[in-house]
Structure formats: structure tokens, C-alpha cells
Amino acid sequence: MDIKGTPINVEDMIQYQKDSVVSMEIIKKELGTVTLFAFDQGQGLSEHSAPFDAMVQIVDGEAEITLAGEPHTVKKGEMIIMPANVPHALQAVNMPYKMVLTMIKSD
User: Which residue numbers delimit the Cupin type-2 domain (predicted)?
Assistant: First the structure.
């Protein structure tokens, strides 16, 4: 699907699936990626780290994002930057959520 140059509602681009985490990479370049995610309630990504900063923008629902052991509630319309090399985890605790993950692979 070529979406370049076309206004698109981000929430409508990816759908929830029962008991699943769904992802869709919409930009993939050598220096970074933009990926959409939909997390059903109770789903998440276990603690991990990445060598680059990453920005998460919540476009529907609410996520619990843990950075270096400290939980943060991030709601629709909010964003958080996950610093490089800092352990982080993402969880749909109270409701499902959709997010845009932007990772820039550069210092």
C-alpha cells in the first residue's frame, strides 16, 4: 500500500486483534523506521533495550511504558521518548492501545 502524499487516519490504519500485538512498518529506511502497533488489553512487549532513541506516540487508548523500572502511563495524544540503551517494556494494562513507534538510527 503506497500511502505517500495521502492524508490518513492513523487509528484506522491498524486494527486490534484479540489477544495479540499487531504491527505494521510504514517507513523503513537505513537511518530509521516508523511502525504502527495495536496491542489488545493484557498484551505487551517484555523488557528490552535498543541502541537508539525511540519515540512512542499513543493514538488510541492508554499504555503503561516502563523505563529503567519506572512505570509511566501514556494516554492518547501523548508521547514519550525512550532513551537509547535504557531497558523498557510496554503493556496494555487497563485497555487496548495503538501507537506509532519512530526510531532514528543515528546519534
Answer: 37-92
Residue 64, classified by CB atoms within 10 Å of its CB into exposed (0-12), middle (13-18) or buried (19+), is middle
* Calpha distance 95→29 (Å, rounded): 32
Element (H, E) at 45: strand 44-48
pTM, rounded to two decimals: 0.92
CATH fit for domain 10-104, picks 2.60.120.10, 3.90.180.10, 2.60.40.10, 3.40.1390.10 = 2.60.120.10
Give me the percent of the chain exceeding a pLDDT of 70: 98
DSSP β-ladder status, 44-48 and 88-91: antiparallel
Any residues with CB less than 8 A from the CB of 64 and at least 6 apart, and which? 44, 71, 72, 73, 74, 90, 91, 92, 93
Torsion, CA 62, CA 48, CA 42, CA 13, rounded to 10: 60
